[in-house]
Design goal:
There is one protein chain. The protein is an alpha+beta fold. It is 41% helix and 28% strand. It has helices at 35-44, 51-62, 69-84; strands at residues 2-4, 11-16, 19-24, 29-33, 48-50, 89-91. It has a 3-stranded antiparallel β-sheet with strand order 5-1-6. Strands 2-3-4 form a 3-stranded antiparallel β-sheet. β2 and β3 form a beta hairpin. The mean pLDDT is 91.
């Protein structure tokens, strides 16, 4: 499965304490998200990536062990949540 986010202009992102508000202009919806969701969203703007590619890029950008199952599980869960909220698209 591949994932993609719209252009940055489609979102307004504002940090509030430990969480972040993401306003998705096309849907008119505001979502309260974790920093992990924001990091993934930043990777997917106008790009189409697999879950594995998102893991690898996050590992590189944040000096993580990209081979760990924990990272893959967290990224997979966040991608599913983001797609369910319609802030990213699933592409077959």
């Amino acid at each position: 499965m591949r994932y993609r986010a719209a252009a940055r202009e489609a979102y307004v992102v504002r940090p509030v304490d430990d969480l972040t508000l993401v306003y998705h202009r096309p849907s008119g919806m505001t979502h309260v998200v974790s920093p992990a969701v924001v990091a993934i969203l930043d990777l997917l703007h106008e790009r189409t990536l697999t879950g594995g590619e998102v893991c690898a890029q996050l590992a590189q950008d944040h000096d993580l062990d990209g081979e760990g199952d924990d990272i893959a599980l967290v990224v997979s869960a966040r991608l599913g949540e983001m797609a369910a909220m319609d802030i990213i698209d699933r592409i077959a």
